[in-house]
Amino acid sequence: MDSNNKNEFIPQIIVLCCENSAYRAADMAGTLKLSYPEGIRIVSFSCIGRVEESHILHALENGADGVMILGCLEDSCKFVDGDVRAKKKIVYLKKTLSEIDIDDARVEFYNISPNMGAKFVELITEMNKKIKELGPLFKKDIIFKEESEFEKKY
Amino acid sequence: MPQRRKIGIFLCSCGNTISKLINFKETIEYFKNFKEVELIEENSFLCKPETLISFKKKIKDNDLTEVIVAACSPQLKGTIFKKAVEEAGLNFNLLSLVNLREQCAMVYKEKESSTKSAIDLIYSALRRIKLQQPISSKTVRIKQNALVIGGGLAGLQTVINLSKLGHPVVLLERESSLGGNININSASLIKYNHNNINLKELVNKKIEEVNNNSQIQIFTQAELIKLEGSVGNFKATIEIKDKDRKKKRKNLNVGSVVLATGCQSYFPSEKYGIDLSSLVITQSQLEKLMNFKKAGLNGINTICFISGIIGDDQRVEGDRLLNQALILATKYKIQVYILCKNVYVAEEGLEELYQQAQEKGIIFLKYDQKKPEIKSEASTDKIDVSLYDSLLGKDFYDEGKELIISCDLLVLEEQIIPASGSKKLSEILQVGCDEEGFYQQKNISLQPVFTNRKGILVVGACRGLMNIIQTLDDSGMASLEIHNLLKEKLVRYNLDRAMVDNDKCTLCLTCMRVCPHKAIQLNESKSPNQVSIKVNDLACEICGICVSQCPAAAITLPRYKNDQIMAEIGQTI
């Protein structure tokens, strides 16, 4: 594998973060100079309860091989029950995904608090490993086609 | 014809911290050919005041329509850049901050991958910022007064603090006189030895202070029955009983509401399985006996307490128990036994009280799973309690021996629960409470005195077990928070709250049910066609839960619109 680096599969993972907890945990990971594998993009939300199923599906459609949803720890959501609502959506979505033959491990929900920088890295690395085993979600040429359409739109 | 888009991208090298890990040349090269990118350049220390001046100048000179700043985490310097962009004449929502330091440069091992990630991040910010619109602001007038419910220690202290801060206050008390629990319990008993505070003196002083203050309006025998509106403009309806027991209603307009309804002691008889009698009494009955001076406890030589059956959290109960035992031992020269599972001294001064109790000859006995039992018959005037003391060892009991304490009076520990009617009040105010009925739903460490509704605060024992010092601290904290909310007559806020599109809305009321802050209300009117959903802007805390739950997609959050999020998620490289 090492000799043929360019063909190595890099899992593209979108991380949807609550700006009050997981986003800060990601910052903490950077401040502590912990490193995680490449191919990660962090998108912040006002509360993880804002996340809709369509956002996750959109990410999977457009080239992401996995989506992580990170909310606050239980009972410490600033907006009372944002994390519970997000979790419910993910459980539902996982069911739908497995019905259309997409491995439900590609979408995962975790609870995290702002001071858990090391845990954040641990979760990302674990997810990266898992997706690497599963392989890419779609073949690359489909994505290129969509890319050009997307650029026309915006 | 719309104006041509001119986006400026400012990269911050952060004094070589970022630039040594990311290839800025390659990044600039990548974005240079984009037709909407007017300016892309590298700066060192963009957050410095001198650099900010040139940053502002560049925005003005190049007539930029949108700005992307790729620097450190927005949590660190976000506000500085927002301010600078506003000073340069752009709306704050036309600025996008890319977290290049914490979430890109510092986490990747190789320069190649971090450069790739940087391009990816800036590109997604670029896609998103094209869909961002300017957000205007609005000014509203608010009421600066507060309504305090409950005239106990917590309520009195809050009222005094608020009037000192210059807010007119209305104080509601459902009993005929102020003071709360001090009127029920004998005050001399709840003398907190370790704090050297005499509660009765303290409360009487506060009552006097409140009565002499002309800024404070007091309603006794009054209760809150209805509350409408939101922070800054609550419409409260109160019901006052006058001398002839006639009920009178009164409407008040207040800016904020403080709950200080306090607690009460409660005897959970189902947990003990012991019937009360003249020999078996509760803690409050003991307090009553002690109130009759010496006569109440005449002829009693030994008293036994049973504690620890209710639960483990005994911070305040333990305080009460040890104080009672100490007074009995020192003042009345009574031999006291305390049967407990564990002695919790997890509170300031409790350790000292426990030591004092041991010095005065109070005997602590430990039992485990098996509850202490009453052995003697009902007719005798002595009561025998048997217990299994695990510290004595198994051999002791194997020999057929029994540990029996014979006493004149058996006192059972009581539980402290929220005051009666607090459940009803929580329904009126739409404030959440925990299983026991205490008003504390938000994170107890982060937001101690807040409820789920903005402008409604909780103080003192109604939000959890609390001693005097903590109660006084609490009311100080709540008063400052209210001052923070209501200090100015005119409040300016950005219109980035949830917005309802009434054409799309089908009045399913999902958002009303879902909103954790109860900021969404039904705008009722006489004709049925004009009923609509309204978001109270000041009460909205911009979480977006209603947006994601709305089945008709009628609610939007200007800073987190669906198309913006989709664009940012976009496609991966």
Describe the structure.
The complex is a heterodimer of chains A (154) and B (573). Chain A has 154 residues and is of the alpha/beta class. In chain A, 45% of the residues lie in helices and 15% in strands. Chain A has a single domain, classed as Rossmann fold. Chain A has helices at residues 22-31, 53-61, 82-99, 117-134, 140-153; strands at 13-18, 40-45, 66-71, 107-111. A four-stranded parallel β-sheet of chain A has the order 2-1-3-4, sandwiched between helices. In chain A, helix 1 packs across helix 4 (117-134). Chain B is of the alpha/beta class and 573 residues long. Mean pLDDT of chain B is 87; it is low at 186-194. In chain B, the strands form nine sheets. A five-stranded parallel β-sheet of chain B has the order 8-7-6-12-23, with helices on one face. Chain B has a five-stranded parallel β-sheet with strand order 14-21-15-16-17. The interface between A and B is large, with 48 and 52 residues.
Structural class call of chain A reads alpha/beta
Q: Please give the CATH architecture of chain A.
A: 3-Layer(aba) Sandwich
Give the biggest beta sheet of chain B.
5 strands, parallel
Radius of gyration of chain B: 32 Å
Span between N and C termini of chain A? 37 Å
Q: How much of the polypeptide of chain A forms β-strand, as a percent range?
A: 5-15%
The helix content of chain A is 40-55%
Oligomer: heterodimer
